[in-house]
Amino acid sequence: MIDGKIVYTESDCGTILDGWHGWTNTARAVRLAMGHGFVIDADELADLERYETDSGNDDNDTVSGQGGLCDRATEYLGSITAPGLEWVWDDGLTLMTETDADEFGHHG
């Protein structure tokens, strides 16, 4: 939450980052979260900026690896999202109800 406020509600459900953006969606998710108050340190920002210019660089795992910036950003987005909704990565990043996520096979 940002100052105790929910940013994303059921009216926001749908595709947030379309899959046609490919590998850049991982960096875009971090930027989206940063726009809502997600904080990263200077080294992580430098890694993100390198990643945005060359996905094949050595910082790839820092941004897109398990537990990396993208995972942390997605968790942060969940913290500013109304209860009963879930962020789902598939062919992009989608905000959906937990019921839809269960039906889609991506709950939890």
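Second entry:
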Amino acid sequence: MSEFTTVNLTADTTAGTLILDAPGPKYKDIPLEVMVQAAGTFGSGTLAYLISLDGGTNRTTVKDSTGTAYAATADDIITLSLPVNGAENNIKVYAKLTGSTTPDIDIIPVSNQ
């Protein structure tokens, strides 16, 4: 898998679908900003993002600065600022879609690096 993967969601993905794999040591010393565009038919579903700093073992819902979980029900763009995570970054970001009926959403991540 490449580091940034465009995916097409056509069904609910309660565990999340991998869209970004930022292994170290390439990103060990620089914060990584990733813009993620979601566009298409949401089919009444809700899109969220999950982040893992340990290679996918533990996943946490992405939240804004007020602690509110990010959620989209229509086309949207979000910018994720991923942390510097020591000598061996193993950051993964997942798209999670729930409650949808016949969705067709393209998830497109783009980095500043």
